[in-house]
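For consistency, the fold was encoded as tokens, as this record shows:
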Amino acid sequence: VLFRSGGGPINDERLWARMVDRRSVNRGDPRRTALLEALDELLREQTLEEVNVAEISRRAGVTRSAFYFYFESKATAVLALMAELYDDASDATDLLVKAEGDPRTRIRTVVATLFDSVDRTPHTYRALLEARATSAAVRELWEAGRAEFAEMTAEMIERERAAGHAQTGTDAHVLAAVLLDLNDHAVERHAMGVGPEREAHIDAITHIWIQSIYGSPA
């Protein structure tokens, strides 16, 4: 999930457009929508590397220059295609950092949301992995958002420790970064169709988070 400075999730469509698109447009723009729908269709058939901008534009019924009016590259267009995934995850992120209610239920909900997002559009997530590996711009956005998320998670851990709910130990910022590494790796493997069975995978990740932060499986 991406976050703006100060802690809130990036839900505002105009802010998302400024980050991802070449123009500050809204999601209702018909040409932009047609381009993203065409990209989604192609990613169901091909890898991101195999997809070309000319074919995206042809399927969308617009010119090649129209694509570059909205997007710097097909890699950044993948990020725009995944805006709904980030929106879906923001509520779960809020649930995590507020640290309210039963920790196991809260953390499992967050992890399950990540898996749900991948299950809805695995081809898009695989394209994101390609984009992140090949585009410096995408990596920069990804790492910036991840750093914000790690900071918020660390702050949550520190609050739980101060309240006597969580165990002391590993530096909260280091622990948060490693736990996010775990999530990233698990979701990537799930998107590629490898790794443990889904529910067992979610249970195991939840257990590791609970043990690492609270020191108890209960």
